[in-house]
Amino acid sequence: MKPEKILTIGIDIDGTVTSPSSIVPMMNESFGRDLRYEDCYDYNLANVYQITEAEFEQWLDQNGERLYNEAPVHGIADQVLRKWYPAHKLIYISAREARHHDVTLNWFARYQIPYHEVDLLGSHDKLEAARKWGVDLFLEDRLENALQLSEALQIPVFLFDTPYNQARLPELVHRVSSWEEVDRKLKALTFGQALV
């Protein structure tokens, strides 16, 4: 058996560490809709809710703090991340704005989610941050990010399965359905085994 390799893991927050469905009840409440998470076929929720980009941006500006504070943990993400922390470097790279730093760290503390770095970019373009931190693997729910990161950096990306990221995936992007599966795949990766 090969020795375990220590990895620098880039981790998205929303829809990856937090439950991907957590935004839907709040959007329904605000826009008087009754959509289900399964109806969110597009990452761009302005399209799903048939509102303008500006309306969505304004909504997120007004409700981001509450959303980030109230979002539930995605499955057993907290347990898996606590298990990984001693062996791997955990770098959270998120499109959240820097002004949400405190609510983000308070949420991490509440759920005892460990981190080495939290990088809030205010943009969906995570490539430069992933390069800067030297990530070996990325965990993501946004298809465009997964494709860009895997191609540009030639690293594996674990893409959490959602209604809004369905597409054929290149070899380096691995669709995962749970944090249990992510944990199994990481184990295979660190021991140099094939990801199946």
TrEMBL record:
<feature type="active site" description="Proton donor">
    <location>
        <position position="14"/>
    </location>
</feature>
<dbReference type="InterPro" id="IPR052419">
    <property type="entry name" value="5_3-deoxyribonucleotidase-like"/>
</dbReference>
<comment type="similarity">
    <text>Belongs to the 5'(3')-deoxyribonucleotidase family.</text>
</comment>
<dbReference type="InterPro" id="IPR023214">
    <property type="entry name" value="HAD_sf"/>
</dbReference>
<keyword id="KW-0378">Hydrolase</keyword>
<protein>
    <recommendedName>
        <fullName>Nucleotidase</fullName>
        <ecNumber>3.1.3.-</ecNumber>
    </recommendedName>
</protein>
<dbReference type="GO" id="GO:0009264">
    <property type="term" value="P:deoxyribonucleotide catabolic process"/>
</dbReference>
<dbReference type="InterPro" id="IPR009206">
    <property type="entry name" value="Nucleotidase_putative"/>
</dbReference>
<dbReference type="Pfam" id="PF06941">
    <property type="entry name" value="NT5C"/>
</dbReference>
<dbReference type="InterPro" id="IPR036412">
    <property type="entry name" value="HAD-like_sf"/>
</dbReference>
<dbReference type="InterPro" id="IPR010708">
    <property type="entry name" value="5'(3')-deoxyribonucleotidase"/>
</dbReference>
<dbReference type="GO" id="GO:0008253">
    <property type="term" value="F:5'-nucleotidase activity"/>
</dbReference>
<feature type="active site" description="Nucleophile">
    <location>
        <position position="12"/>
    </location>
</feature>
